[in-house]
Structure formats: structure tokens, C-alpha cells
Structure prediction request, 455 residues.
Amino acid sequence: MAESADNEYIARRELPAPMLSRKKISVWSVLKNCIGKDLSKITMPVELNEPLSFLQRICEYMEYANVLTYAAHQDNPVDRMKYVAAFAVSALASNLDRLGKPFNPILGETYELQRENYRIVCEQVSHHPPISAFHAESNDFNFYGSINPKIKFSGKNVEIRPTGVVTVEFPKWNETYTWSNVNCCVHNIIVGKLWIEQYGTIEITNHATGHVATLTFKSSGLSDKDLYRVEGFVKDENQQKLLFLYGKWTKFLKCCSMEDYEEHLQQEKKIEEEKHCNSTHNAAQGKMFSKLNSFKLDSFRSLSLQEDKEFTPNETNDGLPRSDSDISLNLPNSILLWRCKPRPANSSEYYHFTNFALQLNVMESNMKPPDTLCPTDARLRPDILCLEQGDLDGASREKARLEKQQRDYRKQEKNSDELGPRWFKKAYNPYTKSEAWIYNGNYWDRNYKNVNAIF
Ligand SMILES: CC(C)CCC[C@@H](C)[C@H]1CC[C@H]2[C@@H]3CC=C4C[C@@H](O)CC[C@]4(C)[C@H]3CC[C@]12C
Prediction:
């Protein structure tokens, strides 16, 4: 497993104030008028936010950057691919239980993060539609892309499609990998407890060798066994399967050979068949039993109806996932590619942040705008800082002020051609034949003299 060289940066173990209870405000009351609408355009009460900007949220992809470094250090493309796949899964682990809405970045807002082995810069390059671009670099890799989250309220759930392509480059190997992220769903907006699920398929392509990794994030719709599960294969350029990948995006990713996988399938089939045999036997016995007791049936109808509920596949009465099962997550001769770090013990009081997320608003001692921190950095956003301190009124006042400022600014800008992002430019991605935002390479020169404060 890629565990080496991971000196986690920890400047604090909690936020200045715990999150405030959301009891006073129901998500349903906010969303009921937004059925079918694009939620990125809707102003929501700050009670539903978490004290981070979406740009910071994107940086959470980097929590397990060491897995990417490890991938770059592998000598053959299949090994590199399996760790790139592990990185793609690891990047989504922090989404578990994160039910607060990050703040929409202001146009021109930036966020930077420097850690031991890499640095990343993000910029909000478009406001309508909201597009956030990022570029991370290290000695071993470049990782960049843009995300345009499409958020829709279906009437029951909030559905999120994070459209956009992400790219990994390993200069040493002359390799480029691309993929798009899976969808996300927040369940139980009307009643019950909110919870988050990610589902869909990621297809990672190594454009130099033709290797592909597919990773299917299963929806727990049919069986609670599938809850949070991820499964897939590494294939060669002829679509020949080489490795089986499996795990949970909340816990770990492992891999094993196709032989061990096939063997495991056979075993499972056997067990299933035996189970089936036993259950038909039981059913026959059951029939006899119910005949004998048929006179009792009517009086017990209400009871049996209640029992029927037990057969709803994946949800308990309040629509929560029933169990987080570990069945067949242990195939013989597997290799652990990535394991999720535990959250801090007090995480649930702090928006379910990971340790990594807890550090994102920290103003490090060497960050002094405008010389050593860009004046547009999200760490300087007053609304986010107010929320972090538990000051809801301040947060909502500042958020409203920034949103108004943004609208006024847009009206003015219509007449001038000064518009446009500062650190990224629009380009064409030849691999995916789609629009891309490419970093211009200048951010870390720290020449911010002409950058106006925007907060
Ligand atoms: C009012 C409440 C219930 C709405 C809360 C919506 C929250 C949970 C939504 C809004 C925007 C969403 C994010 C939008 C884009 C991405 C990038 C993707 O690669 C991983 C998921 C992630 C990070 C989403 C996670 C869930 C998210 C944070």
C-alpha cells in the first residue's frame, strides 16, 4: 500500500466553533419550491452550508496524493494504472456524511494549498455556469481539470453531476490519464435522515498505452450488500481483463488477479446454490405450517404486513441504509492499494470534516496578502470565516453582501472586456475532445500587484 512519505499536516484538531444544529430549519422547507431546478442558481440559507468554498472542497481530492506519487514510481503501466485507480477512489472518500453545502466561489476567487510533496491552485473561472479549475503539481505528477457541478432537486433527492474531465500526467513515463467523476445523491430530503451515495462508472484511460481501468460505484438500490461498493477491472488495450479491483469508497480499494477473481466467483455461485436449495426446502415446510394455521391468518394480517416491510431491499423504515456489509471483500491473494484514514473523533461536531478538511481555512504564518498570498484566496472570505466561528448572522450578512457585489460587478463588466480568469485559459483537450481549462503557469510567481481584493 502507498503509505510512505505521509507526514500529515495538522495545525488544528477542531474548528473555532462546533457546527450549529440544523433543527430549526428543514431542508425540505428550503427546497420544496425548487423541484427540477438547477440548485446552483438558488440562494440557500447559510445554516445549510459548511465553512468551505467549493474550491477548497476540490482540494480534498489531494488528501491521498501519496497514492499518486506511488503510482508514478511503479515501473510498469498495469501497476501504475491500479494505483491511479486507487487515487481516483480515494479522492471521493471525504464525501461520506458531508451534508453541508460548500459556498459558491465568487468569480475570480482562488485557493492555494502547499503540502510536503505537491502544491495546488484553484480558480473560479466561470460564474454561470459555475466552473472551478484546478492544477496540482509535484516532482512526479501533474493533476488538473475543471468541475462544473450540476445540482438538481428531483423532489425526493438532490442529484449532483460533477461534469468535467480530470487529467493525470506522469512526465517521466510520458503518460496522460483522463477520467470523469461519478454522480452523487443526497437521499431523504422530504423525510428521514439525510445520507450521501456516489454511483456510476469511472473509466480511466491511459492514452499512451491504451490501458483502461473501469470502476463501478454501485448504487445500493437493489441490495444493501452493495452499499458504498466499488468494483472494476484493469484492462489492456484489447479490452482483455488483467486485474480485478474491489472495495468501498468509504474504506479501501484492493486488487487481485483474474484467476483469484474467477475462483471466488465459482465459490460464491456454489454458496448461492446451496442457499437456494435450503430456502426451497424451508418454503415447503412453511407452506404446511401456514395451512395448519390458516384460520389464524386474518387476525395476524396486520402483523404480517409489518413483517413485509423487512423485505424492502436496502432501506430501513426511515430510509437509512440498513447495513454496511463486508461480505466478499476479502478475496485471496489481494493487495491493498489504498486505505481510508479514520476521521477525527469529534468529526460529527465539525461538519463531518476529515483531518485534511479541518486545515483548509488555516492561515499559515507565511501567508501575507498581497505578497505571499493572493488577495483573492478563499481563506479571506468573511462569510466562510464567520460560519467557521459559529456566527450565523455575520455569515449570512456577508454572504448576501458578496452575492450582491458579484451581481453589480457583472452588470458593470458587461461593458468592458476586462473579464476572464487570471490563472487559467480555455483550451481544447485533444484526448477527450472537450473543452479544458489549462493553467498558465504563473500563479506561484506570486506577482499579485494587479490583483484586486474581491471580498
Ligand atoms: C441542502 C443540502 C442538503 C444540499 C447539500 C448538497 C451538497 C451535499 C452537495 C452540493 C455540491 C456537491 C459537490 C459537487 C461536486 C463534487 C465533485 C465530485 O467529484 C465529488 C462530489 C462533490 C464534492 C459534491 C459532493 C456533494 C455536494 C457538496
